[in-house]
Amino acid sequence: LGKVHILLVDECHNINPNNSGQYREFINDLKRFGNPHLCVIGFTGTPFRGDGVWLWQGTEPLFAGTATRVSMDELLLQGYLAPLVVEGDTPQLVDTTNVKVSGGDYVVRDLDIAANDPEIIEKTVNDIFLRASTDRKKWLIFCVTIDHAHAVLERVNYITKTNAHIVTSHTPQGERAETLRRYKLPENHPDAVNCLVNVACLTTGFDAPETDLIALLRPTKSPVLYVQIAGRGMRIADGKKDCLWLDYTSTTKDLGAVN
């Protein structure tokens, strides 16, 4: 690559504050073979790792601190973000009392046992439809595993033909691209997809401003995952006032308000 003077990294919370990982290896090589004075600038909505460690902390952090920032509250006041509407009486249906924790978050295998229960899924999806009414046009539902997502999708389609689709790591690339394209169509378009059930696919970087309902069926202890999921509903769009945040887990209660 020759001599690189400035390296700009989007979603830089993926860079390890310890000197390990592919990002750090790449940056070290740029310095070693090209320019020892390389300047690295990062952009992120979550300047911390999944365990809550700030990017300028750790044993060998790459970053020295924050150069400049803008808060969610500022962006909300200025109209650059849409607020989340939190309904305090949303039932906490996914019980994580007996779910093990490893690496700062719940063990997915145990989490699936807690969440992927026909009775819980039925109550959850029924409640989503009850609260969504006719006001919410574009829904994102976050699930634990692929099996869990398929069970949720089946229940959604059982209640009504809301044109719901699924996106997981098993979804072929072409099919995924087409599904996301259709999700971004106006809700009254004949080809529109109005509900997306997904597993860890539509978090960081997924841009669908029209999203006005998010249902969280996947508990997490990770502040990064929590904020990134919530952020999918905070983008502004014509005719959109806010996004309904339906948390059927203890995540919002445990981690606090997203701002």
Q: Summed up, what is this model?
A:
With 259 residues, this protein is of the alpha/beta class. Helix content is 31%, strand content 15%. The chain starts with 5 loop residues before the first strand and ends with a helix.
Quick tags:
two-stranded parallel ribbon; alpha/beta; six-stranded parallel β-sheet; 259 residues
Strand content: 5-15%
Largest sheet: 6 strands, parallel
Strand order of the largest sheet: 3-10-9-6-8-7
Principal-axis shape: globular
Helix proportion of residues, in percent?
A: 25-40%
Question: Element order, helices and strands?
Answer: EHEHEEEHHEHEHEEHEH
Can you walk through the features of this model?
- This protein is α/β, with parallel strands linked by helices and 259 residues long.
- It contains eight helices and ten strands.
- It is 31% helix and 15% strand.
- The radius of gyration is 20 Å and the shape is globular.
- The two termini are 39 Å apart.
